Every structure is written in structure tokens, then in C-alpha cells.
Amino acid sequence: MNKKRFWMYIGISFGLTWGLGAAAYAMGVRYEDMAMQFVLMLSMFAPLAAMLLTRLRTREGFHGMEPAIGFAGKKRYYVLAVLIPVLYIEAGWGLLWLRHPEAFSAKQMTVVLPAACLVSALIYSAAAFGEEAGWRGYMYPKLAEKFGDMGACLIGGTVWAVWHFPMIAQGHTFGLDYPGAPYLGFLAFIPYCIGVGSIQWYLTKKSGSVWPAAFLHAVNNAYISGSFLMTAAKDAGGVLDNGNRLAEMTVLMLPSMLVGVARMIGMRKKKES
Predict the structure, then answer these.
(1) CB 40: neighbour CB atoms within 10 A?
(2) What's the DSSP call for residue 44?
(3) CA angle, residues 235, 250, 177, in degrees to nearest 5
(4) Where are the domains of the chain?
(5) Rounded to two decimals, what is the model's pTM?
(6) From CA 56, how far away is CA 165, in angstroms rounded?
(7) Which residues contact 121 (CB under 8 A, 6 or more apart)?
(8) For the segment 158-216, what is each residue's pLDDT rounded down to a tens digit?
(9) From residue 161, how far is each of 79, 111, 121, 184 by CA, in Å?
């Protein structure tokens, strides 16, 4: 692994994202404002910009990156990229249903949420590609060269989580109405990013393209957002807006963490064999 390229990529990616967010915050834009949502969407392209700038600045060039950004690989990995987050978040919904059965309906869980989120994912896909071209298309391969797939998932997932910390500090995902905010939110987000990132890395390696990871990212984000909006509504009992959103969101995200851990173990066993 070329350390100069790795750290340059990290510096540019974090600098662009955190700098853009800090500038918006200094101008009075807050997380709940629509303008901040635009800033967050724009910041998702920072890893792509960091990858391109690093390749240009270090004279690494662009040879060999075509498969990573093209629609390569077997189509089943694109299908899996959509099905996997649907299944693990539906499982998370099931766990929440066990805790709050009065807040859910079968129609919500099996029709309304999946349909709305899959449509929303089409909009998210381009921005998700901006992240995945950098994280899974550039950073993870470099980490895997030195630390293997397991190391890439653990280190890369942690880096990816830390990149989100300023957003979490403003209430992203967990809100701020829980004990220990936002620091417990930071800690909860790390295993989540490690788990989801390992699934995305698996899809990227198997397909030879970052697009399956981008589709998973888009569906995942749309599903999480949809879950929050539907279960925070008054007619849904305010499951995620009851003063303990950190606990409820952690329950919702638990299946994705478990799937990710299983995927990392699978990659390690395959390497050992």
C-alpha cells in the first residue's frame, strides 16, 4: 500500500466533506434545514473527488479503474445489492415490531415502506456512487493490499464511520435526545459501518464494480430514512422519536451488523482455506 496516496485520499475526502459542512454551519445552516440536506447530498461526492484528485496529484493515473466504475460483473450481484438491505432492514423492523407491536401494520412493513424506499433509492444511487467510488473503489483495495479483507473491513469501516461524525454530532441517524449524545452515537455507528461496509466490499470484489455497493448504499439509506419517517409519525406511536432513538435505531441496524460480521468471517475462512 502506498501510504502517501492513502493519506492524501483521506485528507482530501475528509477536508472536502468537513470543510463544506463547517462552512454551511458557520452560515447558520442546521441539520434540520433543507439546505443542509443538499449539503449532505453534495458531500457524498467528496470521496469520488478525493480519489480522482489523489490519482492526478500523485501521478497514479487512471489506468485500470474502468472496471471499478463501470457496470461489470455478473448481474446476480446487482440483484443481491437490492435484496440484502431490504431483507436485513425488514428484519430490523421485525425486531422493532417485537418491542412496539402497536406501532406497526403489516401493510407498512411489507408494501408501503419497501415500495417507497426502492423508488427513493433510484434518486440516491448517483450520490451513493460518489461515496462508493472512493471508499470501496479506492480506499478498501489499498487497505486490503496490506491488511487483507478483514483488515480492510475493520479499518475502512472505522474510517468511514468517523467521516460521518460531524453529521452525527448534529443529529444524523440517532438524533441528540439520548444520554451521552453524541459520543454514544459515534460508538454505535462504528460497528454499523464496519458491518455494512464489509457487505459492500464483498459485492465489489465479486462483481468487479462499485455499482452493486452503490445500489446497496442507496437502498440502505432510503430504507433507514423511510423507517425513521414512518415510525416517527404520531400515528405510528413515535417509535423512533420517543427520547430513546439511539436504542431503537441500534435495534433497527442490528441485523445489518450481524450480516456484515458473517460476511467478514466468510471472507477470512475462504482465505485460510
Answers:
(1) 19
(2) T
(3) 65
(4) 67-272
(5) 0.90
(6) 28
(7) 82, 215, 218, 219, 221, 222, 223
(8) 999 999 999 999 988 888 888 899 999 999 999 999 999 999 999 999 999 999 999 99
(9) 26, 31, 21, 13
| Grid coordinates belonging to 101 | 407491536
What grid cell was written down for 142? Answer: 489499498
How far is 212 from 202, CA to CA, in rounded Å? 10
Residue 170 near residue 30 (C-beta atoms within 8 A): yes
CB–CB of 117/226 below 8 Å? yes
Exposed, middle or buried by CB within 10 Å (0-12, 13-18, 19+), for 150?
A: middle
Per the listing, cell 457524498 goes with 44
Nearest Cα residue to 205 out of 68, 9, 86: 68
Answer whether 189's CB lies under 8 Å from 103's CB.
no
- The amino acid that residue 151 corresponds to is G
> pLDDT per residue over 14-59, tens digit each?
999 999 999 999 999 988 898 988 999 999 999 999 999 999 999 9
Helices (H), 27-45: 34-43
